[in-house]
Design a protein that fits this description.
The complex is a heterodimer of chains A (462) and B (195). With 462 residues, chain A is α/β, with parallel strands linked by helices. Chain A has 16 helices and 19 strands. Chain A has a 5-stranded parallel β-sheet, with helices on both faces. Chain A is globular, with a radius of gyration of 21 Å. In chain B, 45% of the residues are buried. The chains are: A alpha/beta (462), B alpha/beta (195). The structure holds iron/sulfur cluster.
Chain lengths: 462, 195
Amino acid sequence: MGRTLAEKVWEQHVVRRADGEPDLLFIDLHLIHEVTSPQAFDGLRMAGRPVRRPDLTIATEDHNVPTVRGPIADPVSRTQVETLRKNAAEFGIRLHPMGDAGQGVVHIIGPQFGLTQPGMTIVCGDSHTSTHGAFGGIAFGIGTSEVEHVLATQTLPAYRPKTMAIEVKGALPFGVTAKDLILAIIAEIGTGGGQGYIVEYRGEAIRNLSMEGRMTVCNMSIEAGARAGLIAPDETTFNYLKGRPHAPEGEAWDAAVDYWKTLRTDDDAVFDKVVEIDAATLTPFVTWGTNPGQGAPLSSVVPAPEQFGDPIERSAAERALEYMGLTAGTRLTDVEVDTVFVGSCTNGRLEDLRAAAEILQGRQVRTRTLIVPGSMMVKLQAEAEGLHEVFKAAGAEWREAGCSMCLGMNPDTLAPGERSASTSNRNFEGRQGKGGRTHLVSPQVAAATAVTGKLTAPADLV
Amino acid sequence: MDAFTTHTGTAVPLRRSNVDTDQIIPAVWLKQVSRTGFEKGLFAAWREDPSFVLNDPAYTGASILVSGPDFGTGSSREHAVWALQQYGFRVVVAARFGDIFRNNSTKMGLLPVILSPEAVETLQKAVEADPATEITVDLGAREVRATGETWSFEIDDYTRWRLMEGLDDIGLTLRHADAIAEYESERQPWLPKTA
Ligand code: SF4
């Protein structure tokens, strides 16, 4: 019987297999940031263990960094970043600190350097590591104990998750983005729908996505509960990688491409579960609640809790509406927003900024609008194209790279009761600041919303 | 980590679903570089509400959390596990858990127990009716026992053994250093290096 892509990549990385034990899996790339690593390095020090493969490890500062120029004001945040610097120096790990041209959100810099390649295993102490699966590898988030384990051994003991195919049939209609697609998928299968699975996204609509769109989709796999999400590599993948600093060159490139071409699910392979989505029916999508599965088409209304048959979902909807300050039956396009955030590892790449700029060109924003590039490189490229001028002329704030309002560990937060349209990935209670209310949207909807002050589809702008 | 064999204690009913790790411990608490002191951050936003169940003195000293489904979804922050443990919890019972949270728990010796939604409901009702209700979680027998009823739960043999022995994963893996070295010698030459 044939094998799925996930099975192929997994098998390629098994260091040791024994009956009744998890597989010991080799890790090709370990990404580190300041938040989930300090206790892991402490553990190494206490046990007197070195980092086994500093040459397969890379660190950056992202979660705590301010997005206005200057030092970190909060002493606790500063200590955490300084701790990473000390640890990186002590253990010989390459670090891209604040201000460095290579700095940025951990899931943006890996692909940007060409470090994320097809067929690899990639981990990071961060659940959105699933982003890297867009290149056709297995990439997943781990906790701090596992970070320490990978630092010490470059391996992880793990059971192979089951496999799920999400088949997106047909083409996305004009104006419907990768973000709308993944929000619709999560609303369909639920926040627990992917638990215990590696999801392979397949089908015409997926193949037609750019690498950046594929990263947006894979990024949010975790919001459906999946361990990882991946997409088979193809010419789009190879073209993206070619010429990047860490991509293979010359003969090595040819050998790599030959191997990468084998990284696809065999025609006779069987997935443990298959979900089909009809792309042609999709429209711009937003969340109305406090988990990413609580979403609906922007053209619809805030749902009534009674619509949910399951009592647990019903009470979750009741709670969510109360927290969000929303009334059932309100048209989503009537929901007024105070702040718009464009950025994060979901939608903080150049393509996302271009999409927002196209809409803001020649228009004025009515809300506080933060445009935060996902990395310094994205920032420099955007500035080379003049996008920053478009944003500034529209009245938006053009910031330095970092996680920013995605989780509000730095000063970019919502005040209690404030409402945002955000291109990030989590609308949890308090995620963007205590009492803050988050609607997850695409960069296009974010930009159109900034213009009108209400949740708005770009097509509805005059 | 401490070994886990059998634990008997009282329980807190948490009648919420999708208890994401941002709720278990909000991001401001993640700035710490130590491994201690997280109990104060546990459910920090929810605890500001005086009617929140953890503020009910009837549940003081409880060591088992019985939650609605999809507990520990979202962020990979192991701080969520540390906060629960440091607050005094040894076990979390729910019908479904976020995968990363479940992994993190078993690395730290906090036992995640998956029971059916009906069993969770029975337990929640029992401890709501009488907060002094004792629940026994027997990892050896893979059983939860309370109010004269017994429910079995599943956990793989390897994780159970590791928890019952209180073993450190890294030490176990380093026994296979030769296998790792052999694998490393056969990796494709084009694979990227950061340095
Ligand atoms: S941008 Fe947001 S989701 Fe992505 S790594 Fe940073 S905090 Fe996490």
